[in-house]
Automatic annotation (TrEMBL):
InterPro entries: Bud13, CWC26_splicing_factor. Residues 28-188, 209-266 are annotated as: Disordered. It comes from the Eukaryota. Residues 157-169, 222-244 have a biased composition (Low complexity). Residues 136-156, 209-220, 249-266 have a biased composition (Basic and acidic residues). This is Probable Pre-mRNA-splicing factor CWC26. One of its GO terms (cellular component) is RES complex. GO terms for biological process: mRNA splicing, via spliceosome. Belongs to the CWC26 family. GO terms for molecular function: RNA binding. It comes from Ustilago trichophora.
Length: 338
């Protein structure tokens, strides 16, 4: 069984709260004195000093313990309460704004102020509505919305009045031209010389055209004279076709001449035609005499007249000629008696 005196002593010196109070209430020892630590305020100390008689000596070193009435702690942060009743504010908190009843009164008068706002704004400029943090009532939000709408209407009216058309004069044209020239961007090269954009673009276009012409001419370098003539004939034909119609008739001269120039192997008039029609390109031929050969083939047009063979063709032709002459002589000798 624990000692009640020991428990009372421990509760008096080392414990606090309802448990210590219960232990001290059970004990009946009148010698044990309960020590309570009570925080004495600065006001109680000042009242006690004023009530006591005599001179009170204060040390300057104890001035840090006292705080001026209007002074606040610089290091600490003081919470702020927006709205709310004064009775709910605890120690260390500061109330900002009016109570709920005042807010209701202000909200009730919001409509009246919003109705009188346009008349006040007509006389002068409306002050900019400052944005308020925290909760706002329905009346305050409505008043702010009406103020914004009214401000937008006034801005639209001023912009429409400023954009009203005025009679156009020559001075306005000069002013517009001067403004356009003033707003024109000036381009310069590395040396600081002004570059004319129009002239520069024209020069670049001329260079591009010359480059295209050179490229087209370079493509024709691999073409011959005949190919160029064919291309020219095709272009002229296309130009002539542009002016012709789609329908073809029996009296069309171009159409008939085109078919007359065609040569066919089964054409019966091809054997007695006085002049053979030449169609298409023809190779050049050798002009001049040339030694005979067994196939009667003419030399090329580049032959210089020198026979570079082994002489077989020449001996063969001479042998054939000798045999043919002997045969003719024998026939003539046999018929001499007749």
């Amino acid at each position: 069984m624990p000692d009640p005196k020991l428990q009372a002593y421990l509760a008096a010196h080392y414990l606090s709260g309802p448990k210590a109070d219960a232990i001290l209430a059970r004990t009946s020892d009148s010698e044990i004195k309960v020590k309570r630590k009570k925080k004495r305020s600065k006001t109680d100390a000042s009242e006690a000093a004023s009530s006591s008689s005599g001179i009170v000596f204060k040390d300057d070193s104890e001035s840090w313990m006292t705080t001026a009435p209007g002074e606040e702690d610089e290091d600490g942060l003081t919470p702020q309460v927006v709205g709310g009743a004064a009775g709910d504010v605890k120690k260390g908190f500061r109330k900002v704004g009016g109570s709920g009843s005042k807010q209701k009164e202000e909200g009730g008068s919001g409509e009246a102020s919003s109705s009188t706002q346009p008349t006040a704004a007509a006389g002068g400029d409306e002050p900019t509505t400052e944005f308020r943090a925290g909760l706002r009532t329905k009346e305050e939000m409505k008043a702010a919305r009406l103020a914004r709408e009214e401000r937008k209407k006034r801005e639209a009216a001023t912009s429409s009045s400023s954009s009203h058309p005025t009679p156009h004069t020559a001075s306005d044209d000069n002013d517009d031209e001067a403004a356009r020239l003033a707003q024109t961007t000036v381009y310069r090269d590395n040396s600081g010389r002004v570059i004319d954009i129009a002239a520069f673009e024209a020069e670049q276009a001329a260079l591009e055209r010359s480059r295209q012409l050179k490229e087209a001419e370079r493509k024709t370098w691999s073409q011959g004279l005949v190919q160029k003539q064919q291309q020219q004939a095709a272009r002229s034909q296309l130009q002539s076709v542009q002016s012709q119609g789609i329908a073809r008739r029996a009296t069309d001269e171009d159409y008939n001449s085109h078919f007359k120039q065609q040569e066919r192997a089964d054409d019966p008039a091809l054997a007695f035609l006085a002049k053979k029609r030449i169609t298409g390109p023809q190779k050049p031929k050798y002009k001049g005499p040339y030694p005979p050969n067994r196939f009667n083939i003419a030399p090329g047009y580049r032959w210089d007249g020198v026979d570079r063979g082994n002489g077989f063709e020449k001996l063969l032709i001479e042998r054939k000629s000798a045999l043919q002459r002997r045969e003719q002589e024998a026939r003539a000798w046999g018929q001499s008696d007749m």
